[in-house]
Amino acid sequence: MCNSQNSKVCASGSSAAYCSVECQQTDWPLHKVLCKAIKSVATRPDAAHKLGILFPENAKTPQLVWVNCKRVMNPHPIEDDYILENPDISHLMDTNPLIDDMLIQHNMLRAFELDHTLRLNYRDTFLTDGSKKNRSVAETATGPVRHDWRGSLLTMRQPDIEQDGNIV
User: Is the pTM here over 0.90, yes or no?
Assistant: First the structure.
């Protein structure tokens, strides 16, 4: 959760680090669910799989899921060719095949830049296709939810791209 070098790691699961009690309390609704889940998550199927957090539309709590991430060359290079990660998530996103993503590099609630990038996948037509409000987001959010999220959501850490185009 925090970028501070002085952050203290969660004593129970070592899955999160916090710079202050306030930061820990802000993250508590989500952390209490994921900290327990990470202790019993299935073994990683292979090196191509990454752990993601799925916020199912109708579930009360988010789930940890393994996502198969294929590495592909960027089909629309701006300057140089580089490798992208293409997660296979259609089976996790209900029935709508139109999936979009958003890259997150700033923690709006705590007002600081992240030291990594998160990729949030969502159904592109969630506002017009009759989707219900996402229950797992509403149940785990601290304070008001800034977006009217509907349908399932998936978030994963986005790989960093080195200067030579390799994913790290």
Answer: no
